[in-house]
């Protein structure tokens, strides 16, 4: 059925666009189709938004290509000031944006507020980096000439983001892309597009010129993004999402030899040694496991605890997990919201049943409560066998899986026994041990005695099948540039 999306959704004083942003205009999709966005806390339809076709995707590339030369030629200070205004507007609108995230993603308001602050920080950080794209000059070893190195904006970029951090995953790409002088076609997840649309509106309000940022929402993702990625004017693909889709996109990107950044899945080991401060370790596990109800690529997926402290750790973690208040994301009393959709609830429940069936001990939770919405109770399992499916794959839900170990060597080997290598956590009061273990863990990031690694000023990313490239820090900016070398004789 042909329908058009309403012009905007009014939410707590925030106008949330529901159409496509192409060349500075909010447009209906070419075929006039819509996607319904569902509130996972009660399964109601929150909004109907434009459902883009192939021609809309290509129109967005046209707009980004047309805007690129002028944007790349803008003074870095001007780009910096526009990004700074994005930070200020995002901060001003933070409460409405947090509620919007809670509504479409389901996460509890404190998590949503944390995400907005984190997401806004990418605008501030890259407003500061935009004026520090520094190359270098050196004398060649032979002394015959100079070597001049510059970092130039790569061009039109395609940015694809997941539903679990709808604000932060968008700004973590948009801010460095714009700071470098690139233009963008952003494709947010179909489950949570409203936050990206609201961010795009604030970028327009902050003075981002027409065509520099374009946003495409679609239910036919592969069909619409395939031609965008194949368009020779697109020079970079930056993707955050599952390893499975990442592999598929890398194959597509190979045809035009696109520069790729891939922020993919994780299976973070969380190591607690018997010399750890157990209160700190339990606090860390609550953050590393339960941020976003466990739906984070950095979530502690395998909690290895040294024998001797494993029972006590499990007891304290169970006490904390079973006391968490589960409810609708926007309810101020809620500490854990729903999962994003029904398929996620089914998948988490299957993983729990598989582990229990193989001998894991269920200490709390282990089921979906009787409520409307996609809820799953905070769950703790101990003595999880290594053959359980949740040990080798992402749980992506509020389930803590505890596995006892005896020696440091055994813990390191177990931590590294994964195709993933995104984040890892080490708890020990012996810093020599913590650093020794951190150096041997195969992951892009390690947190010692804390449950959080994400920071806009730090290089975020994984090794092995968790991805390619880094986001955040100065490196995140350089990943949107090409290095140009000029051999110089003067
Ligand atoms: P996903 O299914 O891989 O989807 C991610 C994005 O890719 C969505 O926008 C999706 O669109 C799009 N997509 C799917 N198929 C595509 C195709 N054929 N061509 C182009 N785009 C396509 O992942 P998700 O379920 O949204 O997110 C969860 C995953 O993301 C987890 O594995 C998590 O670990 C990972 N993640 C990684 C990081 C990191 O920084 N490393 C951060 C957050 C999340 P649709 O919405 O239309 O399907």
In short:
The protein has 490 residues and is α/β, with parallel strands linked by helices. Helix content is 38%, strand content 22%.
What can you tell me about this protein's structure?
The chain has helices at 54-72, 76-92, 94-105, 109-129, 168-180, 194-205, 221-230, 243-254, 278-290, 310-322, 342-357, 389-392, 408-416, 431-440, 473-478, and strands spanning 8-11, 14-17, 20-22, 25-27, 34-38, 45-50, 136-139, 146-153, 156-160, 183-187, 213-215, 234-240, 259-263, 268-272, 300-306, 361-364, 379-382, 399-405, 423-427, 445-448, 467-468, 481-488. The chain has 490 residues and is of the alpha/beta class. The chain has 2 domains: 8-264 and 467-488, 3-Layer(aba) Sandwich (Aldehyde Dehydrogenase, Chain A, domain 1); 268-455, Aldehyde Dehydrogenase, Chain A, domain 2, CATH 3.40.309.10. Helix 14 (431-440) links the parallel strand 19 and strand 20. Helix 2 (76-92) packs antiparallel against helix 4. The N and C termini lie far apart (67 Å). The relative contact order is 0.14. Bound molecules: NADP nicotinamide-adenine-dinucleotide phosphate.
Biggest beta sheet attributes: 7 strands, mixed
| Strand tally | 22
Q: Roughly what is the average pLDDT, rounded to an integer? A: 97
What portion of residues belong to β-strands?
Answer: 15-25%
Q: Count the helices. How many?
A: 15
CATH class of the largest domain: Alpha Beta
Bound ligands, each once: NADP nicotinamide-adenine-dinucleotide phosphate
Question: CATH superfamily name of the largest domain?
Answer: Aldehyde Dehydrogenase, Chain A, domain 1
CATH topology of the largest domain: Aldehyde Dehydrogenase, Chain A, domain 1
Structural class: alpha/beta
Our Rg estimate from Cα atoms comes to 23 Å
Low-confidence stretches: none
- Give the terminus-to-terminus CA distance: 67 Å
Whole-number tally of structural domains: 2
Question: Do you know the CATH architecture of the largest domain?
Answer: 3-Layer(aba) Sandwich
Strand order of the largest sheet: 16-17-18-15-14-19-20
The helical percent reads 25-40%
- Specify the overall morphology: globular
